[in-house]
Specification:
By secondary structure, the chain is an alpha/beta fold. The protein is 50% helix and 14% strand. The structure holds adenosine monophosphate.
Length: 225
């Protein structure tokens, strides 16, 4: 088994990033670091960060780069994470964030940046039917709900529609993705790090494709010369 991958998963909201990041983190035995989950936890706890982020998140806007970079920098320095590995989900979202990440990880650079490709029409439909556990973040849909009522199969938490999963906020977030985040793929491609993976299919099919790409990149990075 290969462990210790350092990777970023990019993709439109609703491309299946959250689901695949959980699987990747288990498979490679590294933490799943989701900036969206970290911010939602801060909102729930009512911390200073949460208070600053709440209105921005509800509107589907991006929180300021320096704020989110500080959060990620701190997290990546806990328990030697920059060295042991991680799956980054929802970060970076702008070229400025990618530049900051390159500095934070200069000693142990990323192995790969995967762009999980799912067309816009498909993701709009997926997000509108998405339901999320308010406690652990597990993802369901109106077509595949939890087994018992709207209580999470994993932790029993309440399964709800996210405040920013309204149609208006979704369209705004997708627009921001095209403007701010899509250029990142070109930025990483110039650095030889970007790989596109087809995000259409069952979760198992997509995971198999992801593992193949990641294994190849990690093996290439550990081969001398
Ligand atoms: P997500 O769960 O990744 O869709 O993130 C939910 C919301 O959190 C986003 O719509 C942004 O408001 C905020 N957010 C998460 N990650 C970032 C980031 N890297 N930069 C700026 N805002 C972010």
């Amino acid at each position: 088994m290969i462990s210790g991958v350092r990777m970023v998963l990019l993709g439109r909201q609703g491309a299946g990033k959250g689901t695949q990041c959980v699987r990747l983190a288990r498979h490679y035995v590294v933490p799943h670091i989701s900036t969206g989950d970290m911010l939602r936890a801060a909102v729930k706890r009512g911390t200073e960060l949460g208070r600053r982020a709440k209105a921005i998140m509800d509107a589907g806007d991006l929180v300021p780069d320096e704020l989110i970079v500080r959060v990620v920098d701190e997290r990546l320095h806990q328990g030697g994470t920059t060295r042991r590995g991680y799956v980054l989900d929802g970060f970076p979202r702008t070229v400025a964030q990618a530049e900051a990440l390159a500095e934070i990880t200069a000693a142990q650079p990323l192995h790969v940046v995967v762009d999980l490709e799912v067309p816009t029409e498909v993701v709009v439909e997926r997000i509108a039917s998405r339901r999320t556990c308010a406690d652990c973040g597990a993802i369901y849909s109106t077509a595949a709900p939890p087994k018992y009522g709207w209580h999470c199969d994993n932790c029993g938490g309440e399964v709800i529609q996210r405040d920013d999963d309204t149609e208006e906020a979704i369209l705004h977030r997708l627009d921001l993705y095209e403007r701010e985040t899509a250029p990142l793929i070109a930025w990483y491609a110039e650095r030889g790090l970007a790989v596109e993976v087809d995000g259409i299919g069952t979760a198992d099919e997509v995971s198999t494709r992801l593992y193949a790409v990641v294994d190849e990149r990690v093996a290439a990075a550990s081969t001398p010369g």
